[in-house]
Amino acid sequence: MISLLVIFIFSFFTAYLFFPQLIKFLNSKKLIDKPDKRKIHNRPKPSMGGVLFLPVALVGLLFFYNGGDLLAKDFYLIFSCFLVLCLGFLDDVMNLRARHKLLFFFPAIMIAIFGAGIKLTSFHGLFWIGDISHFSGVILTVFTIVSITNAYNLIDGIDGLAACIGIIACSILGILLYFQGFHLHAMLLWGIAGATLAFLFFNWAPSKIFMGDTGSLLLGFLITVSLIRFIENNHASSAQFLVFKNPISFAISLIVLPFFDTIRVFTIRILNGRSPFDPDKNHMHHLLLKLGFDHALTRTILVCSTLCFMSLAVAFSNWSDNSYFYWMFLMGGCASIYLHYLSHSYSYSKKRQLVQLRKQDKQVSEERVYSELNTEKVVAP
Description:
By secondary structure, this protein is mainly alpha-helical. It has 14 helices and two strands, in the order H-E-E-H-H-H-H-H-H-H-H-H-H-H-H-H. The protein has a two-stranded antiparallel sheet with strand order 1-2. The C terminus is likely disordered.
């Protein structure tokens, strides 16, 4: 366990020293994220802050990993993460289309499955389903990695949110995997958590840099494969108190925000006759901002929600997945629907106020009215 803390501290201070230089470099090369209609920030800022996450963690492993020879599975895990980092870099520079990203993403997934041995083999009783065939496991694993990685990428919309969720997930999964015997994997998670914490100092509002797809894709991918490895090796933990009867539910609780946010957003887009991959400003952080919360409070609410769901999963760890999962899904679904209704009702009431004000004084400019309402321009639900 000491090795986890050591690599965390090393990665934090190393990344903290390099981020100012990275910000200067990205600004000088004009590698910046420009504002547009679906983004919240209104000034160009350097992106690709996540480019430091993996290299810093690997240097830490080089110095502090003393768990013996590097196993082939460990090498394949690191190599798959490197491919995802390269994909994120290309996406930040070239703004790849979804199908092109998936094309580049597929080799990393295959290496993780067949090289690192990270594959779902059972539903562990969820939906009354036990073990599944090898082929079904591969298909389910591919779907899981693609879905959750994409979902994590979508929450990177306000300062500090994706980084906070990433630090929590990586730290907890690192502890769980350490006691399951995956020491290098655990150190990699804590190394990246340390680098992400350093990044947070520069991504806190007012932010100086964004993690970009370089960081969000890497974090999403690493968290997902770590969740799968945890689920599959849950009963192999040397610490009995870290063995869960609801491993799938606990795993989902760690990424509950991107999980339910993506389900809600995709469902709304499909019901409106749009592609589920069409970008918009309808994610949970957008809804909270529409309600008048600032970035800091929005981030706090969403991070605390994640911690609450995680705590509930721990409290009910004696329940099986086939019992607790449905309660968790019901709670998360109801909370998502209520937030959606509340936000759009608030926006509609503001629109009515706007109409009344402009009827009373047609000389009042639209910008002045929005300013007096103390809200941003709202779009019809």
